[in-house]
Design goal:
The protein has 629 residues and is of the alpha+beta class. Among the domains are: 325 residues, no CATH class; 31 residues, no CATH class. β10 and β11 form a beta hairpin. α2 runs antiparallel to α4 and α6 packs antiparallel against α8. The strands form eight sheets. Strands 8, 9, 10, 11, 12 and 13 form a six-stranded antiparallel sheet that branches. Strands 7-4-14 form a three-stranded antiparallel sheet. A two-stranded antiparallel ribbon has the order 1-2.
Length: 629
């Protein structure tokens, strides 16, 4: 039996490694383009893809040649990233129905998702992933269940702490993801996906408990390349190249989608010649409680018929090369104007001295008697065509990248009205719609996977801390049965098209029209709080709003009916409590619960009819109860 298991493990290892090599060869042309994009973004813009399949640098053709880099690509990408970082894609869980229990469950799930995003620093991960996506064209998130996170619940036999586990989200560069075919449209259409990542051998032992032999693994690193400079000086530029990391090993994880033969899918992890793990797909993270891949893809631009996206840098590389060439040829012409080009009759002067020292101010130039003195050639002026070509290329930068001078250079057009400038900004942001929509859907997908992992692994009750509506800290106890819905929706529209300024102007216009006014012609306190939230001022007034506090207390009592005995307090605002309890009563279907809630409402009405209200106690202290005479 043990021999059969060993042979089976060897077959799995051989199959996974063979599959990995095939996918790596298929993707190699894309990797070269990614490396070239990274070089141009970092400033190494005198590099190219060689016929032998590598990134090479091409040097100067003449010693006097100007080869400076005027990097417009980096500023364009930084501008696009600054706009993408404005996205604050909050999501909410949509309840199954309008029942109070479903609504409260959805609110709990929403708070848990937001707390998980904060614990995993999803906002920082989005910035990192956006940079990878803008430079290489695509990036991935990996959402898994980590047993090494969460509260400590005990100690194991080996002396290590045992934790309750929690969700872990990480950024995966496109270099580490290998689909079964690069012509697949997206992650959901793949039959299998390989995640190949280099780990230190000690880390592999800690995670999988298997000892493997270390080896040298090629990783990316930065170095300086002496390819820049000009006449009389040299300059170095950053160069993205491969280097060897020692005592490392590549872990190949292959995730295979469920099939008829394998309804739970297949997961195999291989390092070197050893099988680290083999079994079913570990996570139930698809719709309908199906097992799927833990990966989420975001892209910069769509590449038709390709699994990976494309970067805007690929379109800008020819323009960047042309711009560098125009600027450098222009400066070479200026060098000729400043230093001059001399004609000297053969044998008339000491040419070696003239080459070393040039025509310095006050220099005594001695030439042979009867010979013609040296003279400077007429070089003319810098042709105006250089300026025309430079301006044309800058215009093409704006046309292709979609980043105008208004956002790139913060130029203010005095001859334009504020509304016209607003339209220009809106058009500028529209060019980023593909990247922003991909990022928004990626956030939604990550939150869905978070919630589904909690439903899979939280079998016992656990506590989660999160911020309430008033900014105060709230605690919630729950388990998997309390997280029913995983239908997520966005809290707001795209921030690039629906900005805070637009929302404020719209709300102020509606307020002037009296849309928010009640029957008495005044805005209610509840509507005031909603308006403040829309204006981006938060819910800072609700902490002092008594009505809001009474409503929350009544909603909490709605959840406690049937579990504990709910008493009517003297200080309750009976009208608000009756309103909230009636909502629960109309949705309730159980006869016993209906009678219980009805009796509670009757007690509120009795105390309200008795005329009890907030006032002063017998001792004259504020906050007592008195009857209305």
């Amino acid at each position: 039996m043990r021999r059969n298991q060993t042979l089976f493990a060897q077959d799995i290892v051989a199959d996974v490694r063979k599959d990995f090599e095939r996918r790596r060869e298929e993707r190699k042309p894309l990797e070269l383009q990614w490396r070239l994009n990274m070089n141009f973004f970092n400033g190494n813009q005198y590099s190219e893809i060689s016929p032998v399949g590598d990134i090479e640098q091409y040097g100067k053709q003449y010693f006097w040649q100007e080869r400076e880099v005027y990097n417009h690509i980096s500023s364009i990408i930084e501008t696009r990233l600054s706009k993408l970082n404005r996205l604050k894609c909050g999501v909410s869980v949509r309840p199954f129905s309008t029942d109070d229990s479903d609504v409260q469950t959805a609110k709990l799930s929403t708070q848990i998702v937001k707390a998980l995003c904060e614990e995993n620093d999803v906002s920082l991960l989005l910035n990192e992933a956006s940079t990878w996506s803008e430079v290489t064209g695509s990036c991935f998130f990996k959402t898994v269940w980590s047993p090494d996170k969460g509260k400590i619940i005990g100690a194991g036999k080996d002396g290590k702490y045992v934790r309750e586990g929690d969700v872990s989200v990480s950024v995966v560069p496109p270099y580490e993801i290998f689909p079964d075919s690069i012509t697949t449209a997206n992650v959901g259409d793949c039959r299998s996906i390989i995640h190949a990542k280099a780990y230190h051998v000690d880390e592999i032992k800690d995670i999988w408990g298997v000892e493997v032999e270390g080896e040298d693994v090629n990783v990316f690193s930065l170095d300086n390349a002496q390819v820049g400079g000009g006449l009389g000086y040299s300059a170095s530029v950053p160069n993205m190249l491969e280097s060897a990391a020692h005592d490392m090993c590549v872990v190949i994880e292959r995730y295979t989608r469920p099939t008829v033969d394998k309804p739970n899918g297949e997961y195999a992890a291989v390092a070197g010649n050893k099988l680290l793990h083999y079994g079913d797909l570990p996570y139930i993270n698809e719709y309908g409680e199906q097992r799927g891949f833990p990966f989420t893809r975001i892209i910069c631009l769509d590449k038709l018929g390709c699994f990976y996206g494309t970067s805007i840098i690929e379109r800008l590389i020819p323009l960047q090369r042309a711009y560098n060439a125009v600027k450098n040829r222009k400066h070479e012409f200026i060098n000729r104007l400043a230093m001059g080009v001399m004609t000297v009759e053969d044998g008339s002067i000491d040419t070696d001295n003239l080459e070393e020292e040039g025509l310095s101010p006050g220099k005594v130039l001695i030439y042979r008697q009867g010979a013609n003195p040296p003279r400077l050639l007429e070089t003319g002026k810098v042709p105006i065509d250089f300026q025309y070509e430079e301006e044309r290329i800058l215009t093409e930068f704006t046309t292709i990248s979609g980043v105008s001078e208004l956002s790139k250079y913060s130029n203010v057009f005095n001859q334009l009205s504020g509304k016209a400038i607003g339209l220009l900004v809106e058009q500028d942001d529209t060019r980023l719609s593909i990247a922003t929509n991909s990022l928004r859907m990626g956030i939604k997908r990550i939150c869905e996977q978070m919630l589904r992992l909690y439903k899979q692994f939280c079998k016992t009750r656990r506590m989660k801390r999160f911020s309430g509506d008033n900014g105060d800290v709230e605690l919630a106890y729950f388990n998997a049965s309390d997280l029913q819905s995983d239908d997520l929706v966005f809290d707001n529209e795209n921030e690039l098209t629906d900005t805070l300024e637009n929302r404020r102007n719209m709300v102020l216009e509606l307020a002037k029209l009296g849309i928010f006014n009640g029957d008495n012609g005044e805005i209610s306190s509840r509507n005031k709080l909603k308006i403040l939230e829309i204006l981006g001022l938060g819910n800072w007034e609700s902490g002092k709003d008594v009505d809001e506090g009474h409503r929350k207390k009544a909603m909490k009592e709605n959840l406690e009916f049937g579990k504990i005995e709910v008493q009517v307090a003297d200080y309750d605002d009976h009208s608000l409590h009756i309103e909230e309890h009636l909502k629960r009563l109309l949705e309730e279907k159980d006869a016993d619960m209906i009678n219980l809630i009805d009796e509670h409402i009757r007690n509120h009405r009795i105390m309200s009819a008795a005329g009890l209200t907030l006032g002063a106690d017998k001792g004259g202290n504020d906050g007592g109860i008195r009857a209305i005479e």
